Amino acid sequence: MLRFLTAGESHGRALVVILEGLPAGLVIDEDTIARDLRRRQGGYGRGRRMAIESDRAEIISGVRAGETLGGPVAMTIQNRDWTNWQYTMRSTAEPPDDAGGARRGPVTRPRPGHADLAGGAKYERDDLRDILERASARETAARVAAGALARQLLARAGIRLTSHVFTLGGTTVPDRGAIDFARASALPDDGPLRCVDPVLEKQMIDEIDRAREAGDTLGGAFEVIATGVPIGLGSYVQWDRKLDGRLAQALMSIPAIKAVGIGLGPEVASRPGSRVHDEIVGGDASRATGLARPTNNAGGLEGGVTNGEDLRISGYMKPISTLMKPLRSVDLATMTEAPAAIERSDVCAVPAAAVVGEAMVALVLADALLERFGGDSIAALDRAMASAEQTIRARFAPKR
Hints:
10 helices, globular, Chorismate synthase, AroC fold, five-stranded antiparallel sheet, single chain, four-stranded antiparallel sheet, 400 residues, 17 strands
């Protein structure tokens, strides 16, 4: 129903994203896209590039007079550092006479933990820049732009998303299940790490400072929360239609994410069933079913289908692969031991990964929303959702 493709290299001229499947008639707010791109560039522990780039997406097709037309929406995000990379990242065999930027040599020392070595072997490239430029997390800016459009579709359906960081290095917020949507969404966009506990956030900042001084990097974990999610998105009838599987794949596709949890996540393995499964109680007139859950350990998903509770999904990010005090590697040009290459990088990018996580969750939820309710136009989607809610309310009405 909804799909997207991105193109572009980390230091190339621009990133490109094409999003197909948005219904016609969706009002687009470009400032909302800019806000999400700005949030992706924030967070304590980011590198020098964030001071250079100020991302802005330009819509070049699929929108007219502020509304979607039903066709693919294409956007570009210019790399403002392009002038410093024109010579190295030129697309022509010979450099143009006016090509600017440094004459950078080939990258031949792969970084442990990055795609450098595996990608160079797969695509038979001697200069590992051919690998790292596309494998770079810079590509996620295009995903955030696409996700910002998906969020606007979800907002029309009453679904809102936010995120928060609950682990960084050795510091973890206890009982993150008690952090509700309102508390997480109240965090300021320009907060250093988007952690709900200011004392623990200060400890996290101190950990980042120590890692920077040591030439090291830090990972962590974040949680995306979606509220207002209707019951019935996804399906259990086939493995590839289960919404939890689709969400997990989407988050795992973010660079450096090594694990995903839904609801309690890995904690379910160490609890008895009586402390995992969410009891069902009645008397909640605000819900279409009239039913409620005192807990949400399942994270809003049961059997691959949304159950009407808030969706809660977490991503666990490894430390970034570029270390200022590099690990051991091998120079592939000589096959002799050498320190790994150093590329301009961050000490910690967990808050940025959380924003990318929001975008990926938004894209998957928007796809599931259109799958369930259909509609080539916003008006048709509105009618389908209203009809479905009326049917559910009638189905779960008190029996006389």
